[in-house]
Amino acid sequence: MDPEGLQFLLPPASLAALVNSWLQEDCPGLNFASLVTGSAPAQAVLWAKSPGVLAGRPFFDAIFTQLNCQVSWLLPEGSKLVPVVKVAEVRGPAHHLLLGERVALNTLARCSGIASAAATAVEVATSTGWAGHVAGTRKTTPGFRLVEKYGLLVGGAECHRYDLGGLVMVKDNHVVAAGSMEKAVLKARQAAGFPLKVEVECSSLKEALQAAEAGADLVMLDNFKPEELHPTAATLKAKFPNVSVEASGGVTLDNLPQFCGTNIDVISLGMLTQAAPALDFSLKLYAEGDIPVPHARRS
Prior knowledge:
By secondary structure, the protein is an alpha/beta fold. The chain is 41% helix and 18% strand. The chain is built from eleven helices and twelve strands. It has helices at residues 12-26, 34-37, 57-66, 94-126, 145-154, 172-178, 181-192, 205-214, 226-239, 256-259, 271-274, and strands spanning 41-48, 52-53, 70-73, 80-81, 85-93, 133-135, 168-170, 198-202, 218-222, 244-248, 266-268, 281-285. A six-stranded parallel sheet has the order 6-11-10-9-8-7. The chain has a four-stranded antiparallel sheet with strand order 3-5-1-12, with helices on one face. The longest helix has 33 residues, at 94-126. The protein is elongated and about 70 Å long. The model has no long low-confidence stretch (mean pLDDT 95).
């Protein structure tokens, strides 16, 4: 998927609402620092100071558009960043540049960090010869899911379900509440109708076979060790070849290759959104003809 085209996935109304909430969070009242700069025309350079994948341009743009500033990008979405590199230029009233600075940098840094982690995960998985899908999870930051799911896509990973309406997921608590695996899956199938798939979280081969027998489209083998995961998936696929198998729980970038196998269709990693380190960017105002270059981030 071309990272440049992913911007069209973002609903304009949702994007505008997010930007308004971010700016209001950072400046809900009087902005005394604006008296220092005034509204004179100014320009700034966006620098990337740590390596990774550039992601989040539409959010950065939307923030500064809201503040009557113009962004000129020098690198496309999804670019591999080798610090220190000039990424963009921003022009507008000085007090508006500084009002949007931290909000825009936070968003870009977080989104790029997730894209970088996702890209690494995809590279690690594909290097084993595995042809399945690397995916994120619903373990996202409240109020920031659109950015984080977008970052996964820029990095080449799958979103998994965006929200509760994207897939009917039957987890252990649903089974307890419904009374049995069969009842839970039956109710899920009725709720899903024809547009949605049903996935069932399982912690044993017995549960996986029950879920597939009851009509699950996907079976998640949750918190299986690699040495237990692959024989379980093989047994399940032998009896139900049309059921997709997802491995999840305890997967990291270091042990990811151990979860790749011919009977595994999807590997999901919560750490892509929960533990990905943010990239380091800075936005520096400059006078015409004088563009200072910052130092690279020290690890």
